[in-house]
Amino acid sequence: EVRLLESGGALIQPGGSLRLSCAASGFMFSSHAMSWVRQAPGKGLEWVSGITGNGVTTYYADSVKGRFTSSRDNSKTTLYLQMESLRAEDTAVYYCVCRYSGAWTGPFDFWGQGTLVTVSS
Amino acid sequence: EIVLTQSPDFQSVTPKEKIIITCRASQNIRSNLHWYQQKPGQSPKLLIKSASQSVSGVPSRFSGSGSGTDFTLTINSLEPEDAATYYCHQSSSLRDTFGQGTILEIK
């Protein structure tokens, strides 16, 4: 059974930093591209970042480029999102998602339960 | 950035009815369009992949069609548990995007 468990969400002041983690299990983690998707309170879904299975290539939404960094440790089957210079508009539930099909053009087959990041003074 | 526009934004329907939700892309995305259902307090769940492919465990009343720029999600014979928000998602570009969502209320 595929499981994605996010952690690290917190209340953080504007300008602060935070690192989210996503512990994966139930599949060959290193073979699958992963992404982060966020959802602001009462709003829709926004793709944030994607990373290839080997961790070599990453992609970011314009809204977070230069502030957020995705990485992964395949030996620990864990995905990370390092967030810097946080803004109020980064307040959201952050979901870890897996493209189980393997292809970059595939759907987000599996989702974690999400972790809440609140940016406020 | 590829923009996805869903319609309607909100729909209220009665059980057993049929609903069609549309998703229009700002450029050709071939069949790289997927649909999700999200219920309050839950994570989104994949309903239809690659425009029209069924997903294991999803009831057969959910179906999708389209290619290029115009896509539809059809839900036949609506059940009360289908009350949710539905999102389309494109994976054609290196930067995925989602539609704004369609809220479905079951009267």
Characteristic key phrases:
heterodimer, A: 121 residues, mainly beta, 7-stranded mixed sheet, 4-stranded antiparallel sheet, 11 strands, B: 107 residues, 0% helix
Write the layout of secondary structure elements.
The complex is a heterodimer of chains A (121) and B (107).
Chain A (H helix, E strand, L loop, with lengths): L2 E5 L3 E2 L5 E8 L8 E6 L5 E7 L6 E3 L7 E6 L4 E6 L8 E7 L11 E2 L3 E5 L2
Parallel strand pairs in A: 2-11
Antiparallel strand pairs in A: 1-3, 3-8, 4-5, 4-9, 5-6, 7-8, 9-10, 9-11
Chain B lengths: L3 E4 L2 E4 L5 E7 L7 E6 L6 E5 L3 E2 L7 E6 L2 E6 L8 E7 L6 E2 L3 E5 L1
Parallel strand pairs in B: 2-11
Antiparallel strand pairs in B: 1-3, 3-8, 4-5, 4-9, 5-6, 7-8, 9-10, 9-11
What share of the residues of chain B does DSSP label as strand, in percent? over 45%
Question: Roughly what is the average pLDDT of chain A, rounded to an integer?
Answer: 96
Count every helix of chain B, treating DSSP H or I runs of 4 or more residues as helices.
Answer: 0
Give the biggest sheet of chain B: 7 strands, mixed
Overall morphology of chain A: globular
Instruction: Give me the number of helical elements of chain A.
Output: 0
How far apart, in Å, are the first and last alpha carbons of chain B?
Answer: 36 Å
Low-confidence stretches of chain B: none
| Uncertain residue ranges of chain A | none
Mean pLDDT of chain B: 97
Query: From the alpha-carbon coordinates, what is the Rg of chain B to the nearest angstrom?
Result: 13 Å
The ordered H/E elements of chain B are EEEEEEEEEEE
The percent of residues in helical segments of chain A reads under 10%
- Kindly provide the radius of gyration of chain A, computed on alpha-carbon positions and rounded to a whole number of angstroms: 13 Å
Please outline the major beta sheet of chain A. Answer: 7 strands, mixed
DSSP, total strands of chain B:
11
